[in-house]
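Protocol step 6 of 9: fold each sequence in the batch and record its C-alpha cells directly after the sequence line. For illustration, a two-sequence batch is reproduced in full.

Sequence one:
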Amino acid sequence: MGSANDSHGSSRLVEYGIEDKPDLSRAVPLGIQHLLAMFLSTVALPLVIAGAIGLSGADTRFIVQMALLVAGVATIVQAYPLGPVGARLPIVMGTSAIFVSPLISIGNQFGLAAIFGAVIVAAPIEVLIGYFFDDVRRLFPPLVTGIVVMLVGLTLIPIAMQYSAGGPGAPTYGSYANLGLAALVFLIAVVMNQFFSGFLRAGAVLVAVVVGYLAAIPLGLLDLSGVASAGWISLPIPLQYGVAFEPSAILLVAFAYIITSMETIGDISGTTEAVGRDPTDDEMTGGLIADGVMSAFAGVFNAFPNTSFSQNVGLVSFTGVASRFVVAIAGVFLVVLGFVPKVAAVVSAMPAPVLGGAAIVLFGMIISIGLRIISRGAALNRRNLTIIAASLVLGVGVEVQGDVLQQLPSEVQILVGSGLIAGGVTALVLNAVLPKDDESPAMDAGV
C-alpha cells in the first residue's frame, strides 16, 4: 500500500490534498458542492423505499430527514475518525443504493421493524471485513474493485439521463426546456473544468448547478412551494418504529453488506487515486469499519444503511479537491439539514434537469476512475479481459433488462437483478477460480 502522505506535488491535478484546509470562503462552497452531488440520491432512495412499502407522508418525511442526519454524522466520522472507525479520507456517506431492492422486499413481507432489525444485526459483517481486510485483501484486487467502481458508474447512467429529461413521471419529461437546462449545466461544468484554473476549476460543478438553478426560474422549472409548508425543527427519535428479527431478512441484508464492502473498497481506492497513490491499510480498514458501524447507527435512528458515495469520488477526481476538511463541512451541512426540514426543502427544490446535467459528468468520472484503477493494478491479458468483459456485460445486462430473470424466485431476483451484485460477484468468483499463469498481453494472445 502507498504512503499516507500526500501533497500538491503528488499529482498535478490536485488542487487541495487530503490534509489541506482551504480558507472557509472556499471550503464552504466546495463542501456545498459535495452536498449537491449526493443530495438527490440521499433523499431519493429513502423516498423510493418508503413509497414501495406504503409509508405515510409523515413517516416518509421523518425517514428522509433521518437519512440526511445519519449521512452527515457518518461523513464527519469518515473524515475525522472515532478511534478505528473512519478512514481519514474525503469520503461522503449516504443511503446505499445496493440495499434498495432487498429492503423493499423485506418491508413488504415483514414490515418496517424487520428492515431496521436486519440492518442493525447484519452490519457487523462489514465491520469484520474491515478488521480482517489483510486476510481477505486477495479477494479484492484492483481488477475486482475497478470493475465494481465501473459498474457503479454504468448502473447510475440511467438515473442521470432520467433526471436530465425531467425526472421519472414528470409531465414535461424529455421537453426541450429540461434537456436544454441539463445540457447547460453539463457544458458549464466541462468548460470550467478544462479551461479555468484555481477555485473556478475546483468549483466547476457548483457554479454549473447555481447557474442552472437560476436559469430554471424563467423556464418555470423552479418550484419553491414546499418551502413554506416545511417545519423548522425535526428531532431524531431512536427506534421510532421498533425492531424485529427475521432470519431470511438478516441473510439478505448480510449479503448486501458484502457487496457494498466491495463498492467501498473501490471508492476508497478511487479517492486516493485522485491524489496519485493507493490507500493505506489503516485507511481501508477504517473506512470499511465506519461503513458497518454507521449503518448500524442508521438502523437505530430509523435510516437505511450508509455507504461511501461514488459520485463524490468522481467529484474529488473531477475537481482535484481531496481535502477531508471540505468533506467534513459537507457533513456538517447534512446534519443541519437533518434537524431543519425547511432548509432541506430549499435544497430539494433543485430542478431535476440541473441535477441530471451535473450527474452525467460525475457518473462518467466514476467509470473513468474504475478504468484507471484497473489499468494501474492489473495487466490487460486474456484472463483479466475475460473477467472484465463477463462482469460488465452481466452487470449492465441484468440492470437494463431485468425481465430476463422473471422466472426466478423473487428472493433470487432481488439479489441477481442488481447490476452491482451480478457483476461484482462475477468478478469476484472469476478472479478466484481462473488460473493466473497466463500473463501474456492480450494482443499477443490473439484477442
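Sequence two, same batch, same settings:
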Amino acid sequence: SMLVNSLYNIIDSIFVAKISEDAMTALSLVFPIQNVVNSVAVGFGIGINVMIAFCLGADQREQADKAASQGMFLSIVHGIILSITGILIMPSFLKLFTNNQDTLSLGLRYSNIVLLFSIIIHVEITFEKYFQAMGMMVVSMLSMLCGWILNIILDPIMIFGLLGFPKMGVTGAAVATVIGQVVSGCCFLAYLPR
C-alpha cells in the first residue's frame, strides 16, 4: 500500500524531471508531506482492518458493518483535517528548504491539488483495508494497481500536452495523480459487497 501510494509521486517525478530541475525539486520537497498523509491513512486503515476482521472472525456481521461505517466517517474527517493542514503549512514547509521562487511556485501548484484531494487517498486506503479484512487481497491490489497504471499513462499526456490535451506541466502531474486515485477508489466501490 505504502509502495503503490509512494509510486504516484515517484512516477510524477520521472516525467516532471524532463520539464526542469526546479520542477523536480518541487515534487521532491512535497513528497514528505504526501508521505505523512499516506502514512496516517494507512495507520488508521490498519486499525479499521483489525476491527472488521475481529468482528467477522467472531461472526458479528453487524458489528463489522458498524466498524466499517464509523471507520469510513473518521477516515473522511482525517482526510479533511490533513488536507486543510497540509495546504496551510506547505508554503512555510517549502521555504524551509528553498528560496527559489520557481521551485516554491511549482511546489505549491502541485501540492495544493494533491493535498486538496487528500480525502480521496483516505477513502481509497480505507477501502483497501476493508477488502484486506474480508480476505479479498487480489481485489485490493488490482484496484490500487488500476489507479497507479492510469497515473503512468496520464502523466506524460497531461504534463506534456499529448493527444489533444493542453500542456499542464506540474499541474498535469497532480491532476493525473488525483484521477488515478479516484479511479482506484471507483474500482474498490465496484467490488464492494452489497
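Proceed to step 7 once all outputs are recorded. Observation for sequence two: The helical segments are 2-16, 21-57, 61-95, 101-116, 118-133, 137-160, 170-191.
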